[in-house]
Amino acid sequence: xxxxxxxxxxxxxxxxxxxxxxxxxxxxxxxxxxxxxxxxxxxxxxxxxxxxxxxxxxxxxxxxxxxxxxxxxxxxxxxxxxxxxxxxxxxxxxxxxxxxxxxxxxxxxxxxxxxxxxxxxxxxxxxxxxxxxxxxxxxxxxxxxxxxxxxxxxxxxxxxxxxxxxxxxxxxxxxxxxxxxxxxxxxxxxxxxxxxxxxxxxxxxxxxxxxxxxxxxxxxxxxxxxxxxxxxxxxxxxxxxxxxxxxxxxxxxxxxxxxxxxxxxxxxxxxxxxxxxxxxxxxxxxxxxxxxxxxxxxxxxxxxxxxxxxxxxxxxxxxxxxxxxxxxxxxxxxxxxxxxxxxxxxxxxxxxxxxxxxxxxxxxxxxxxxxxxxxxxxxxxxxxxxxxxxxxxxxxxxxxxxxxxxxxxxxxxxxxxxxxxx
Length: 422
Fold this sequence. Notes:
Elements lengths: L4 H6 L1 H4 L5 H10 L1 E8 L4 H10 L3 E8 L3 H11 L4 E4 L5 H9 L6 E7 L1 H14 L5 E7 L2 E7 L24 H25 L9 E4 L4 E3 L15 H10 L1 E5 L5 H11 L3 E5 L24 H12 L4 E5 L8 H5 L4 E4 L4 H14 L3 E7 L2 E7 L7 H4 L12 H4 L5 H13 L1
Parallel strand pairs: 1-2, 1-4, 2-3, 4-5, 9-10, 9-12, 10-11, 12-13
Antiparallel strand pairs: 5-6, 6-7, 7-8, 13-14
């Protein structure tokens, strides 16, 4: 069965990738993902990206399901074809209907939370004796571990040594670090779901450890990650965040997750620059936008989403494209600039403007399964033009329209940009 035209357009940037193509996207649409988590808030980014990339069936199991109904409404606005339920609150008839939709599709479980929650749920999975992949995602402030368990593997959670006191939120912006960790992990897990469903790439059969504070990523089981303490009082640090002004240039694949994360942790002011309008082909990766807002300027669609996420945030929108004439004026009043741009001339232009004014620039780029990022601090290190002195000839580097892009990859990179900004 071929995909209907609206799904081909929606997932076009997946379908043009040979590793996925039409049959692969169909497998994702037929996939069933079971999610186990403590709260809705903790896995919002995960659910947004599962929905955006086209996972067809999602069943959720929460300790605290507050806010789930509203979230489902938003998810179905991104992808109206998704079927999503809260398993524990459904009677057997509803569950039977849910399971009958695509009975032969790939099935995977995701368990996301702290070590104790995951350990308890792994034991339950083993007792159930269900032989399906289980993706475990340990999250804590600034740090986490991703691991795929297949069959009846056991998992020892002593490998991530994190001082319990940091969970109290009294040290090193622990609550903000937990939000950023859950955002980053959510996008990472979605990539793992796709790899397992389509049997592509290398899955995380060995644990992947990350430390967002130091930007360390390793598969070595060492338990040496640092517990970050700060002798300064939290109040001034949080006030600095609430007073901060961040400009995001590009409200698309990279700008969406960056803005999502910054709004979630309480950044005071976010500026959004983008002259484009929302299109159906954006929705496999641009989680600030929705089907009902197709045709709306991206900056206005993003404002609508972010205000729902955090009503207290100040948002300034610029429905224009970055040019030589406006670049300096756009960035001059902001503390940090995030580049969410999809073309090289604009990336060089923004780099030059930030260099001459002395603004920190958090830069990233994505294509297919790959991402690259850097933070540029004028006078303290090399700029974009220092690293890449010559702009490649036009047409020498393919665009995502030509080569495709896996929807959750800009999520990973955009969330990393938010971390670097903080």
